[in-house]
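In this section we walk through a basic example: taking a raw amino acid sequence and producing a predicted 3D structure, encoded as discrete structure tokens. The instruction is simple. Fold the sequence below.
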Amino acid sequence: MAAKKSAKKGAAKKGAAKKSPAKKAAAKKGGAKKAAKPAKKAAKKAAKRTPNAAFMKPMTPSAQLGMVVGSAPLPRTEVTKKLWAYIKRKGLQDAKNRRQINADDNLKPVFGGKSNVTMFEMTKLVNKHLK
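The resulting token sequence is shown next.
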């Protein structure tokens, strides 16, 4: 019985050994294709995108939003970053449905009194608190 098992293992090893040179050749061919792509990406990185001026304009948050992100004028992008940092720090994302944000005492006035909103509703509601 033990002789049959070792014979099967030996046959399996021989079959695997025959396939490996073919895999190596295929890997070499695939490697040549990958080398051509980074040259194109390097050319695209040279032309750097300029941010949209509307997103970069500092806006003053309302008093309710100021409790979360601060009262200094900030661009919308920074407001969103600070709001998400607050949500993550306080653990306000719903455990089962990660799209839902559970409001605490500071966020309820920003969310219009709702106890939970989706992340897509959140941006809509936060924009009402920016001047």
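Looking at the output, two observations stand out. The beta strands are 100-102, 116-118. The chain has five helices and two strands. In the next section we compare this with other chains.
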